[in-house]
Amino acid sequence: MIFTAKQIASYVNGEVVGNENAEIYTFAKIEEGVEGALSFLANPKYTRYIYETASSAVLVNRDFKPEKELKTTLIKVDNAYESLAKLMTVYEASKPKKTGISSLASIAASARIGENCYIGPFAVIGEGCVIGDGCSIHDGVSVGDGCRIGDGCILYAHVTVYHDCRIGNSCILHSGSVIGAEGFGFAPTADGYEKIPQIGIVVLEDNVEVGANTCIDRATMGTTVIHSGVKLDNLIQIAHNCEVGSNTVMAAQSAVAGTTKIGEWCVFGGQAGISGHSTIGDRATIGPQCGTIGNIKGGETMLGTPAMNAKEFMKAAAYVKRLPEMANKIKELTKEIETLKNK
Question: Could you tell me the pTM of the whole model?
Answer without folding.
Answer: 0.84
